[in-house]
């Protein structure tokens, strides 16, 4: 990370500003996607993200620069929702970026909100993934259980209880077996 003197010379952000910003807008996430070529049947990945409307892309670029440019900044439009403004996202999903930049930064400059608990769990999961433990079904189950504690009311908690571990032909974790879509109640 940059020292305060280096920050002054390069117009970089104060680390405490970044911490406050991430407390409000950041996300430490762990995803699980179907992969028939993997023994457990699912691929588990960790990522750090900040997503904003395109109007605020410059602040996202300053955060990226201050953090020494881990990951990438993406811009995208929602063609399905023409009224929505285009968005930009800073995403760090490489193990190197997470273990060498993001995690040390937030360990040095601590989060203040409830996101701190999510971050602590995220660190444990990233360690397990970097040690390749997530490739074993028993550890993959532990990771998903830990991940569900990061945001227990979030949508991911609802979908990952359906994962069929060890089934290379397992269905999508978003599928809802034995339920039919009916009217506004969606599922009965």
Mean pLDDT: 82
Give me the CATH architecture, please: Roll
Number of extended strands: 6
Q: Which H/E pattern describes the elements?
A: HHEEHEEHHHHEE
Q: Which term fits the overall shape?
A: globular
The stretches of 5 or more residues where confidence is low (pLDDT under 50) are 168-188
Radius of gyration: 19 Å
Helical run tally:
7
What is the CATH topology assignment?
A: Endonuclease I-creI
Which CATH top level class fits?
A: Alpha Beta
Strand neighbour order, sheet with most strands: 1-2-4-3
> What distance separates the N and C termini?
52 Å
CATH superfamily: Homing endonucleases
Structural class: alpha+beta
Structurally, the number of domains stands at 1
How many strands, which pairing sense, and closed or not: the largest β-sheet? 4 strands, antiparallel
β-strand percent reads: 15-25%
Percentage of residues assigned to helices = 40-55%
List keywords for this structure.
188 residues; alpha+beta; Endonuclease I-creI; four-stranded antiparallel beta sheet; two-stranded antiparallel sheet
Structure description:
This protein is of the alpha+beta class and 188 residues long. It has a single domain, classed as Homing endonucleases (Endonuclease I-creI). The strands form two sheets. A four-stranded antiparallel β-sheet has the order 1-2-4-3. A two-stranded antiparallel ribbon has the order 5-6. The protein is globular, with a radius of gyration of 19 Å.
Please specify the SSE layout and strand pairing:
Layout: H1 4-10, H2 15-25, E1 26-34, E2 42-53, H3 57-66, E3 72-76, E4 87-92, H4 95-108, H5 115-130, H6 137-150, H7 155-159, E5 181-182, E6 186-187
Antiparallel strand pairs: 1-2, 2-4, 3-4, 5-6
